[in-house]
Amino acid sequence: MTTPxxxxxxxxxxxxxxxxxxIGGRFVxxxxxxxxxxxxxxxxxxxxxxxAGKKADIDLAVAAARKAFTxxxxxxxxxxxxxxxxxxxxxxxxxxxERLAELESFDSGLPITQxxxxxRRAAENFRFFADLIVAQxxxxxxxxxxxxxxxxxxxxxxxxxxxxxxTPFMLESWKLxxxxxxxxxxxxxxxxxxxxxxxxxxxxxxxxxxxxxxxNLVNGxxxxxxxxxxxxxxxxxxxxxxxxxxGQLIFANSAPFLKGLSMELGGKSPAxxxxxxxxxxxxxxxxxxxxxxxxxxxxxxxRILVQREVYDEFVERYAAQADRVKVGFPDDPDTEVGAxxxxxxxxxxxxxxxxxxxxxxxxxxxxRPEGFDEGNFVRPTVFADVAPDARIFQEEIFGPVVxxxxxxxxxxxxxxxxxxxxxxxxxxxxxxxxxxHLFAQNVEAGMVWLNxxxxxDLRTPFGGVKASGLGHEGGYRSIDFYTDQQAVHITLGxxxxxxxxxx
Length: 503
Prior knowledge:
Blueprint: H1 5-8, E1 18-19, E2 21-23, E3 26-28, E4 35-39, E5 46-51, H2 55-71, H3 79-95, H4 97-108, H5 112-135, E6 140-143, E7 147-155, E8 158-162, H6 168-181, E9 185-189, H7 201-208, E10 215-217, H8 222-231, E11 237-241, H9 244-254, E12 260-264, E13 270-273, H10 279-291, E14 303-307, H11 308-324, H12 343-359, E15 361-364, E16 381-384, H13 391-394, E17 401-407, H14 410-417, E18 425-429, H15 433-442, E19 447-450, E20 469-470, H16 476-481, E21 483-491
Parallel strand pairs: 1-5, 8-9, 8-11, 9-10, 11-12, 13-14, 13-18, 14-17, 16-17, 18-19
Antiparallel strand pairs: 2-3, 4-5, 6-7, 7-21, 12-20, 15-16
């Protein structure tokens, strides 16, 4: 029996009916007045209208950001002064974490407890870069008695930030934190599926004392607002998180302008479970690794490779635990998998579920959870005995769907792990220390976790290889991306010049 949605879930109070752009310190409509619908992922009904930005709106935002960069105080502030503003931003985000989580959960379908964790992580991202820019040192190279060389780090200009719809507020902070910390100004283009939490940044930044024009936000479709931002000649930097195919398009459109690019793209990450692994820990981690955040995570371990000695036991236990994962309304604190973000994405994920029934053995899930006849709900779905040439093995599904494949030897496991176009993350489960390090060295992935789920130290580089990305961010890699490094050379003593044309 289906429970009426009106009595089964709580709607956040004071939801806006429309969202505007934020340009030059003011909330504004689109130049042409156009808007687009934003849907509630539980009902797929429109709950607000967002301003639909296009080239004219991007032009205004870039002009405001450019003026703030060339005339405003932000790029010229001492690192400690910018750090204080970033710490105030972190304080405000922390103080409003429950409201942020409530809106994020409603807008994206994320379980409320996981949305709360992401809101707190957003605060930590700002705090991390607030500390990093104060502690940062620049390189100096000495040739005693002859030459002194040192490096100046300088902000580059207007950074274009294009963010995805999965955990949007946190991922926006991941780019905003270092871009602002290093003295740049920004134009943010959030994902059109989930613009609600992004609309809160303007008020947070104003309250924290960020100067006018440093932060600008333009909502809109990727092919309109995103494309205009990528092609704008006065935006020298683009940081993008999203699909690999979109990343290819951004790469091509940026080429005529020789823009700096940082792109974290898709993934089809392997989790390799050897026979000597702690199966209890491996099952818990791999369940969490693919079903948390509704499976809508780039680092999901969505291909699980299991050594044949423990394969049958692993599949049986994994399927039983997946069946116990609680699917429910996003606002329910007990929910572990909520609603997928949008009906278009739901249709894509379900098409892979139906395909998987022809490519593997369905051992859990495979459809809607009982009692959820509308909205974008999918049961955690597990396919076993999946061949390495199957589409559900090769292609990113970005939902609560996992493929399990057996292997016999270490070499076979490595070949299977590397047998996709992606290379973002990998997870290795073994108690053999030598095997663990050798496997980590040879697996084609930008990040590897040994006997762990995705627990990331913010100081480490984040990024992938192959079709999973271009460049790295995180820690000093973010500082590198958002600054120019100018080498200054000083001659000490007599000039060391050869003489041409001597009389």
